[in-house]
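Collaborator request, handled under Task 6.
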Amino acid sequence: MKKYFGLTLVLSSLLVTGCVPAAIVGGGAYAVSEGTSERGLGGAFTDTEIRLDINKKWWNSDADISKRLSLTVTEGRVLITGVARNLEQKMMASKLAWEVKGVKEVINEATADSTTMTTGSYAKDTWITTKLRSIMLFDGDVAGRNYTIETVNGVVYLMGYARNQTELDRVTNHASTLSGVQRVVSYVRVGNEPVEQKKS
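Structure tokens returned to the collaborator:
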């Protein structure tokens, strides 16, 4: 209960001070849902703190980064996706992420473009993510709670924890056979594979 109470205080203080955009509140919901994963509740809250800190840095440096890019944090590994305004903005997003305490790896899969995603492409990406999450939910051989999914322009990014390679292969196959999916990129950790500190 203390950890839940602590997170509530952190989120409340951030909102009261007005330092972060409302969109960041989603990190709190993410933490609660991930709390049931095999990583345990403690790891989820740490990831949420990292997510909040990165979003705050993005917002304070260039609010447009927060609008264009999204991030997933699992065990200190940060996955950045979306469409950056230009290459400079993409690199700045990575630089700011590395400044946050607890970050072990930054994987920047954002594309650099002068235009934003269209409403149609965003809707299709959302459908793909939702559909894949639904399929995983009803697959008894997949622990869907251990995965995070991000879809950008038809590319499905998987992150999280797989109990074994067979399970990961099932998830990858589910994703690759969905209509509209261009390719599947996996950053999923398998079994007890250690998380190493590295930069990209």
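The cover message to the collaborator said: "The longest strand covers residues 77-84. The radius of gyration is 17 Å. Please let us know whether this matches your experimental observations."
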